[in-house]
Amino acid sequence: MSAPLLDSVQSPPRTFLMAMKKCKAYLTLTKLRIVIFMIFTAICAAIVAKGELPDVWTMAAMAIGLVLSAAGASAINMWYDRDIDEIMKRTMGRPLPTGQLRPQFALLFGIGLELLSVIWLWVFVNGLTSILSLVGFLYYTVIYTMWLKRKTPQNIVIGGGAGAIPPMIGWSAVTGNIGWPAVIMFAIIFFWTPPHFWPLAIVKNDEYVRAGVPMMPAVRGPRNTKRQCLFYTFVLLLTTFSLYFTGAVGGLYLAAAIISGLAFLFFHIRMWYEPDDRTVWAKRTFFASLFYLMVLFASMAIDSLLSFFVFS
User: How confident is the model over 31-75, as pLDDT tens digits?
Assistant: First the structure.
């Protein structure tokens, strides 16, 4: 067998490798880790709404629709922010700054995913869930990405509403309506967003300054940002406790909310006392915020499931 023929047998075709590279680039556009986090909050909300494990098909259909919508919104975000992504160290390796994908393809990809999401949810779940998905998409792409992000240090505060919609989507998927517990879950993520993201913004402050993005630390300084983080953390804790009084969750959730909330507050207090030229506790607080929200929503779901199995 000749050497060229042997090489073609032993190594994958070049076109296949290029196709795999393109697929990976499109997958990167979707910000899959954030999407998975959103699916988690939506499923937990659905369990609370149902008071038991919801129908598997309904959950699968809701999850698919939400994945399509959130992935499409992320793609539009990367398309619009490609100019600042190539400046910031943590984003310059994304597909558009590196030239792996053409901007127009990313735009069409994002719009196409959202259209599929709206149709899918309308047909296989219900109209309200489909509308909420579209609202979340427009909130993130238009209100946050195109309007707020580059204009005001309140971008994260107001823009937090986009990431807060998935629990309402999960609730509406199994009930066909939006109950007060779902509204409080929305408020929990809304008030969680500033003390979650601003610690990261403190860590990456130099990059935001270089890119000209008016994040709170870049405009008001780290000391004022930490002060506001403490304020929103107190508001967040009160909001998490209020969910208990709707009757949708029980004592297990309340205990988890109190313990995890005090732990989250501890991280912010340590960040407050850290010198502003250091970011060790800011980085720890950012990662703690992710764990905190997971504990909150997991405890909601577990509380509801335990109540169902014990009292049914």
Answer: 999 999 999 999 999 999 999 899 999 999 999 999 999 999 999
Contact in structure between 58 and 125 (CB atoms under 8 Å): yes
Tell me the pTM. Answer: 0.92
CA-based nearest residue to 241, from 212, 265, 217, 223: 265
Pairwise CA distance, residues 100 & 22, whole Å? 7
Q: What is the DSSP letter of 248?
A: S
CB atoms within 10 A of CB 270: 15
Q: How far apart are CA 95 and CA 105, in angstroms?
A: 11
CA distances from 215 to 51, 136, 149, 224, 233 (A): 40, 22, 8, 12, 18
Token pair listed for 155: 């971008």
In 3D space, the residue among 186, 176, 163, 180 whose CA is nearest the CA of residue 121 turns out to be 176
Rounded Cα distance between 106 and 126, Å, is 28
- Phi and psi torsions of 33, nearest 5°: -65, -40
d(CA 90, CA 94): 9
Is residue 146 within 8 Å of 80, Cβ to Cβ? Answer: yes
Task: Please tell me the total number of residues recorded for the chain in this structure.
Answer: 312
Q: What is the sign, positive or negative, of the torsion defined by CA atoms of 232, 180, 242, 50?
A: negative
Query: Both tokens of residue 99?
Result: 């030239």
